[in-house]
Amino acid sequence: MALNEAQVITDLLGLCRSEIEKRYGEQALDIHKAKLTFEQNRCVRTLFPKSSCRRCVDACREKAVFLNNSTISLENSKCSSCGACVSSCPTEAFAFAKYPLYSALFQIKKITEQNQKNQLTNLPAVFACPKS
Fold this sequence. Notes:
Elements: H1 5-24, E1 36-38, H2 44-47, H3 55-59, E2 65-68, E3 71-74, H4 84-88, E4 94-96, H5 100-117
Antiparallel strand pairs: 1-4, 2-3
Helix pairs in contact: 1-5
């Protein structure tokens, strides 16, 4: 029996949802609250002012991460919580503030449903955790 990808993701979302709701309350399930934090004292440009590192700036599609007087700044109101800055930062100065697993599963479910609508059902899914 073949696994239905959408059903697997729905089941995971259900488990994740109930655990988050139990621990943090229903308001924690709003995926738009999964904002990022930025620790300036971990940033390469802060630690080494002559550094040319700007990986997070280059990775951010929304331009929520930007250079401000030679230092890195984050404007959370522009941030979509995609995690590009988190995965690109060599010093882990960026991190998810709340519930990234739920947000990620929600996005995967949305993409899977869209692929099924467009009859792209045999696309492979690849998960990677480069910092583990």
